[in-house]
Amino acid sequence: MSSVAARQPLLTEGPIARTLLMFALPILGSTVLQSLNGSVNAMWIGHFLGEAALTAVSNANLILFLLLGAVFGLSMACTILVGQSLGARNMLEAKRVVGTGVTFFVAVSVLVAIAGYAGTPWMLGVLGTPADAQAFAIPYLRIIFIAVPSMYFYSFLMMTLRGAGDSRTPFIFMGLSVLLDIVLNPMLIFGVGPFPRLGIAGSATSTLIAQSIALLALLWTLYARKHFLRLTRGELGYLRPDLAILRALVFKGLPMGLQMIVISTSAMIMIHMVNGYGSKTTAAYGAATQLWTYVQMPAMAIGAAVSSMAAQNVGARLWDRVSRITKVGVLYNFLLSGALIGVIYLFNHAALNLFLPNDGEALALAQHLNSIAVWSFMFFGVTFVLFGVVRSTGAVMPPLIILFISMWLIRPPFALLLAPAIGADSIWWSFPLGSLASMLMAMGYYRWGGWRRAHMLTAPIKTADEQAVVSGQQAPTTGQGVPASVD
């Protein structure tokens, strides 16, 4: 085996259960770190800069979530393309994906940063941000837009590494970024020591500095380690965009990004309906959703891990392994998500008490709605695992359609229809119904849909065997990408 192949993490070999778990845990860790970072930043701002500042950050983060949601899909498309190329042992195609991705993400991030910086007041106006909060939101959001190129490019590198079978390196540098952000936040807000006192702009500046340092450190590390996907001086021609890859990034990436938009807009509809039942119910729902954020994390991590692992096996045409990856992913979802849900049922009162005062009406409401809805995240987890597998081939529209049906056409109409009869319970029961519907549709598509025939590129990526046949060379024959000996 070549030295390049020897350094390549292989998701097409070895025990599936252990490989998937070891791959998923750093992804889960990255998600937890991001949530922790957001919580710590909100704590500093809310406690020391006041409610208007916290409102400003909430509004700004909504805009940022939409921007990152769109780029998530594009990054995920890159993960799948890299995974399929490396699974096929087609290093040339993997380098083309990286080169096109670098140019594309740099160009898009610069355009978003410039347009966002100029249009910040307009966007906040469209959101209806209160006037007192706008004074905080404008400087905060403008600095965040300056940070967008670092954020987008880091996201691209992180997803590329995952596609290449490495989830540990992104986790380490996410840890570096979060640590820097948490340390710098109070120093730049309050002007500790040599740092200037920047107020809310200090919180955004700490994010900018942390992201930029983490990105530069990651790039330096990849080149110092001579990572097999780095572009050397002689390979800079790959930075010229390949139109077929560019088309795949956009037309396969956008539907995956739109899934995040469908989820977030559905959440906005639900919170609007909850608000109609008064502040106590809204507070109860807010506390429950804080817990739900953490309950969803294992399923999302397993879904992301399954997608990367399946993509390499799709590229290698190892369909039996793809089927086994699906089964193991679903099993892990039941074990990890089920354990978290079990803990919440056991400590329902104590867990919600972290966010709500003791013995309050809102706490009782939160316990009630949690008992109705939280178990349904098991269904949500199965859906995410199945979505992770089917999108690894390039089948990205059916998951988007399934999510749209369950979150827009089933959940809100059900809640509205039964509201006169059972009140707010109609909203709580709409969560299990929507999750069950999406799981059943995802299972149906996985079983009978045409996802195995889908492609990321117009022409499927050729495996090492197929390339060798075309060029008339000796092909590997072991089925694992290990060149057969030539006597």
Automatic annotation (TrEMBL):
Tell me how this protein sits in the membrane.
Multi-pass membrane protein
Keywords assigned: Cell membrane, Membrane, Transmembrane, Transmembrane helix, Transport
Query: Where does this chain mainly localize?
Result: membrane
TM ranges: 20-40, 60-85, 97-118, 138-159, 171-192, 198-223, 244-271, 291-310, 330-352, 372-390, 402-421, 427-446
Give compartment(s): Cell inner membrane
InterPro entries linked: MATE_fam (IPR002528), MdtK-like (IPR048279), Membrane_Transporter-Flippase (IPR052031)
Question: Which PANTHER family does the record cross-reference, listed alphabetically?
Answer: MULTIDRUG RESISTANCE PROTEIN YPNP-RELATED (PTHR43549)
Instruction: Please state what the protein is called.
Output: MATE family efflux transporter
